[in-house]
Amino acid sequence: MPAGQKLKTLRNNRNITVREVEHASRRIAEVKGDKRFFISNGWLAQLENGGSEPSICKLFSLSVIYHANFLDLLRLYNVDVDDKQKYEYVAEPHLTQLISDNNNGHGGSLSAIPAACAQLSTSLIPEVDVMKAPQFSGGEDHKPSIIYGHLGLADFTMYPMIRPGALLKIDTSQNKPISLSWRNEYERPVFFIELREAYACGWCELQGNQLLIIPHHSSPASVRRFMYPREAEIVGRVIGYSTHCIDRESQLPQIAKKPKSRDAKSISN
Predict the structure, then answer these.
(1) pLDDT tens by residue, 240-253
(2) How many other CB atoms sit within 10 Å of the CB of residue 79?
(3) Structurally, what CATH architecture does the domain formed by 83-255 represent?
(4) Domain 3-79 - what CATH class?
(5) d(Cα 2, Cα 268) in Å, to the nearest integer?
């Protein structure tokens, strides 16, 4: 049902006319001292017929008059404030980010990984459905310590072993930079790290109070140093990842570029 028709249904459920809505909104506008909150009966009729969309001020007046939740009215127009975190990594695609879990950390509901996941930054991804990521399916995914991350398209730290755009499976119970024995690069622990206003992914070494993020030996990235744990904290160990086996054409020019800065806030490589 169109948004305008839903608003009309709300008005009918309140058993009020468009003229009564006009009078009520005028009183609201007068108290506010702002005519933007006023709704004429002609404009409301047009709104209900799908001929226009309400401003935030008029929608507020309707929420008051209809005794409706303002956020519910926003959702009629495809604006859901609960989606804010989901689109943060879309708005800043050059960053590496975490995939946040909206299910109390139990990791059981990764909701669709949108195509927008192909972003430049590494991140935590909101609500990804494990069942829609078969490469990560299994009982282990439902452990409270399992969360997910997205490796940004600009993050070449672990290239080519883990290519930009990869989906990362992270065990937060393994969040200490301890030395572990490994026989090859695939056994060497890869960690997901939270920096100041950013994230990173790579091999780690602790030297005194400095945490070193070590890139893959074939990567164009350089070693980065951060004060530990003031500037960098380990979120967890990457225990699985889904990555392309070939480079996307759009990424090829970036691979040859060496990073010019090792700023703690930057995770682009």
Answers:
(1) 998 888 876 555 54
(2) 12
(3) Ribbon (2.10)
(4) mainly alpha
(5) 43
